[in-house]
């Protein structure tokens, strides 16, 4: 099929490449000339394992093209995926201005029947709005369907997740739309749920919020485990082996970040408020997450005393490993706090570079931790897990490691002569 993907950000580019991989002819459209030129040249503007190879493969095979030509993009493709950003407004709600612009362009420029699919995370009721926006901007009243098909992939494992989804959710209102979507996906070996656009839109927010809830629950339990000297990983494992609970998203740490969980939980709360419903459990989850970095910092103070004038090595900036995304990353909260406390900060990240006159970033872990009063791990990069910590113990002023991701081998680290403090990971 001929598929247009509007928006070549993280989700849009991955979606476009997966469709190309599945044998469709794909056009990636964006208003950002720079992004399009880079993609045409086979260069990704973000870091994601395996995607650049896939991009070059499909550019060579001519299954995918990238363009800034909105008119041609819309007119040459029957299936149009909207993958533009839905940034968070100050009140926590999702800003739909880019979705609206795309919908109105489709209405104005369409030259025949179109299936318009929203993949961006959008509030419940957006499919209806998109339907209206297209209708009011139409010059000729061609038929169209609006579909919701949310994306569940994770940064850092986007390719794997997109190729092996736990499920596909398709929300539509007509038989024709469901049929078109079945043609897009072909025969699939994973669960395929057909529902209404409203339910589909809510599923995305509800799933992300539930995962955030799981993390905040284990993080709060970790505080209790710390008091009781219990290893929270054992507790998580013991709980998770119950299939009704599941082991994933029960890793305690310094808190969740990224472009999805913080934004989506807020957006769901905001939407519920609008309908007079209070999702109090989500409010608590947000609160636990906001305080979790300070919980770890408080531990640091208990061991080091006043932090003023101390040197702290921060390992990891990205909100999780295998991505260069620092949106809502716990590291940023930590850095901000430590700077205000008068701490001398040294930083390392394998892929993210932050330039600031307030701290220095180093190329190697070794340089970063040399002469530090303590090390704080904010991201579970394999570079830190696999690091030969025993070789640098003598270079650290105080061999103390605060592991905000419980990602090091605590026993081995302690055996090497370090003081090790995880999050309820004794
Ligand atoms: C998330 C959802 O998982 C994905 O389905 C959705 O499409 C987009 O949002 P992503 O934001 O890429 O994906 O990252 P994810 O792997 O979910 O991690 C989010 C944050 O939670 C990270 O900061 C991570 O470190 C943290 N986390 C995750 C924990 O603290 N503990 C866990 O057990 C799992």
Automatic annotation (TrEMBL):
> Keyword Nucleotide-binding on this protein?
no
Sorted keywords for this record are: Dioxygenase, NAD, Oxidoreductase
Which SMART domains does the annotation name? UDPG_MGDP_dh_C
Q: Does the keyword NAD apply?
A: yes
Going by the entry's taxonomy, the superkingdom of the source organism is recorded as Bacteria
Q: Which residues form the UDP-glucose/GDP-mannose dehydrogenase C-terminal domain?
A: 313-410
Write down the Pfam families for this protein, in alphabetical order.
UDPG_MGDP_dh (PF00984), UDPG_MGDP_dh_C (PF03720), UDPG_MGDP_dh_N (PF03721)
Which enzyme class, named as a word? oxidoreductase
Task: Describe the family membership recorded for this protein in Swiss-Prot or TrEMBL.
Answer: Belongs to the UDP-glucose/GDP-mannose dehydrogenase family.
What is this protein's name?
UDP-glucose 6-dehydrogenase
Organism field: Bacillus bruguierae
Q: What is the lineage of its organism?
A: Bacteria, Bacillati, Bacillota, Bacilli, Bacillales
């Amino acid at each position: 099929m001929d598929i247009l993907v509007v928006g070549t950000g993280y989700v849009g580019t991955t979606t476009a490449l997966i469709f190309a991989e599945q044998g469709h002819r794909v056009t990636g459209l964006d208003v950002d000339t720079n992004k399009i030129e880079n993609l045409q040249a086979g260069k990704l503007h973000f870091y994601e394992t395996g995607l650049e190879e896939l991009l070059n493969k499909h550019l060579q095979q001519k299954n995918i093209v990238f363009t800034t030509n909105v008119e041609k993009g819309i007119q040459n493709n029957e299936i149009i995926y909207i993958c533009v950003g839905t940034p968070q407004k100050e009140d926590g709600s999702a800003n739909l201005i880019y979705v609206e612009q795309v919908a109105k362009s489709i209405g104005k420029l369409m030259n025949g029947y179109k299936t318009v699919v929203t993949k961006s995370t959008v509030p419940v009721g957006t499919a209806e709005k998109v339907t209206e926006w297209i209708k009011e901007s139409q010059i000729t009243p061609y038929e169209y369907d609006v579909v919701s098909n949310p994306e569940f992939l994770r940064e850092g494992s986007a390719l794997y997740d997109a190729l092996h989804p736990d499920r596909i959710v398709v929300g539509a209102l007509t038989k024709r739309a469901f049929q078109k979507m079945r043609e897009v996906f072909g025969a699939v070996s994973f669960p395929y749920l057909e529902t209404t656009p409203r339910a589909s839109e809510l599923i995305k927010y509800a799933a992300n919020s539930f995962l955030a809830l799981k993390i905040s629950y284990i993080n709060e339990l970790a505080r209790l485990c710390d008091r009781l000297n219990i290893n929270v990983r054992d507790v998580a494992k013991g709980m998770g082996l119950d299939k009704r609970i599941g082991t994933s998203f029960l890793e305690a740490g310094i808190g969740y970040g990224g472009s999805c969980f913080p934004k989506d939980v807020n957006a769901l709360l905001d939407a519920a408020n609008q309908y007079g419903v209070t999702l109090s459990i989500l409010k608590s989850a947000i609160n636990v997450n906001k305080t979790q970095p300070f919980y770890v910092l408080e531990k640091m103070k208990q061991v080091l005393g006043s932090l003023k004038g101390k040197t702290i090595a921060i390992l990891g900036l990205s909100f999780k490993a295998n991505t260069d995304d620092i949106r809502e990353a716990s590291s940023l909260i930590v850095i901000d706090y430590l700077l205000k406390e008068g701490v001398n900060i040294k930083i390392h990240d394998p892929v993210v570079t932050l330039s600031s006159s307030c701290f220095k970033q180093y190329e190697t872990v070794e340089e970063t931790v040399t002469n530090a009063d303590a090390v704080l791990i904010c991201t579970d990069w394999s570079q830190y897990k696999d690091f030969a910590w025993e070789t640098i113990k003598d270079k650290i002023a105080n061999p103390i490691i605060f592991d905000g991701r419980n990602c090091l081998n605590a026993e081995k680290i302690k055996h090497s002569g370090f003081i090790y403090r995880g999050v309820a990971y004794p």
